[in-house]
C-alpha cells in the first residue's frame, strides 16, 4: 500500500500537482543530440505510484525536440540513445519527437542525410505510437533561398507515390522571393531529392 501524502490525494489533485511540477515551456523538452541522459522526474523519491504517473505524464504530454550535433544529420543517434536510456516501457509513452537538420544543395550528394533518415525510420519503428518528425531547413545561400519543411516519417507507406509526408512550413524567408524562378527551382530540387529518399525509406 502506498502511504505517501501525494499518493493519498485524489487523482485530479495529483494531476494538478504534476502540471505544476512537471511543466515545460510550450510542452517542449529540448535535448542536445550528443547527450545520452534521459528526462525523468524525481518523483521516484516519493512513491512508486507517483513515479509511474509522473513519468507517463512527462513522456506522453510533451514533444521531445533534439538539437543536431552535426550539420546535415537529423540527430538520429541522439534519438536512439534517448530511447535506449529511458527504456522500452517509458518509450511507449512517447507521442511526439522532433528532429532538426539543416542542408545545403551540395550536401544531398554525400548520402549522409539519406542514411540518417533511414536510421531514424528504423528507430521510429521501436515507438510506433510516437509521431517522429524531421524539421528540415534547406538553405541555398547563392540564391538567398531558405525553405523549411517537416517530414512525417509515419506518413510514408508502400505503394503510395504522393508527397503527403512533406509539409512546407515556411516556403521562403523573404516574401518577395516566393514566386521567383529561383524559389521554384529550389523547391523542385528539394522535392525531387526527397522523393528519392521516400522510395528508399519505403523499401527499407
Automatic annotation (TrEMBL):
<protein>
    <submittedName>
        <fullName>Uncharacterized protein</fullName>
    </submittedName>
</protein>
Amino acid at each position: 500500500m502506498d502511504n505517501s501524502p501525494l499518493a493519498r490525494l485524489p487523482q485530479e489533485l495529483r494531476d494538478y500537482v504534476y502540471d505544476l511540477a512537471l511543466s515545460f515551456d510550450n510542452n517542449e523538452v529540448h535535448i542536445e543530440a550528443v547527450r545520452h541522459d534521459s528526462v525523468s522526474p524525481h518523483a521516484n523519491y516519493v512513491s512508486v505510484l507517483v513515479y509511474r504517473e509522473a513519468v507517463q505524464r512527462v513522456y506522453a504530454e510533451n514533444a521531445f525536440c533534439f538539437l543536431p550535433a552535426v550539420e546535415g544529420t537529423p540527430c538520429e543517434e541522439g534519438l536512439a540513445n534517448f530511447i535506449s536510456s529511458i527504456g522500452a516501457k517509458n518509450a511507449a509513452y512517447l507521442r511526439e519527437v522532433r528532429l532538426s537538420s539543416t542542408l545545403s544543395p551540395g550536401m544531398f550528394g554525400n548520402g549522409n542525410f539519406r542514411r540518417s533518415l533511414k536510421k531514424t525510420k528504423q528507430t521510429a519503428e521501436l515507438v510506433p505510437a510516437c509521431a517522429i518528425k524531421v524539421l528540415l531547413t534547406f538553405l541555398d545561400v547563392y540564391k538567398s533561398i531558405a525553405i523549411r519543411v517537416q517530414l512525417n516519417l509515419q506518413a510514408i507507406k508502400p505503394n503510395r507515390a504522393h508527397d503527403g509526408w512533406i509539409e512546407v512550413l515556411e516556403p521562403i524567408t523573404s516574401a518577395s522571393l516566393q514566386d521567383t524562378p529561383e524559389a521554384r527551382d529550389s523547391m523542385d530540387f528539394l522535392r525531387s531529392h526527397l522523393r528519392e529518399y521516400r522510395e528508399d525509406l519505403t523499401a527499407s
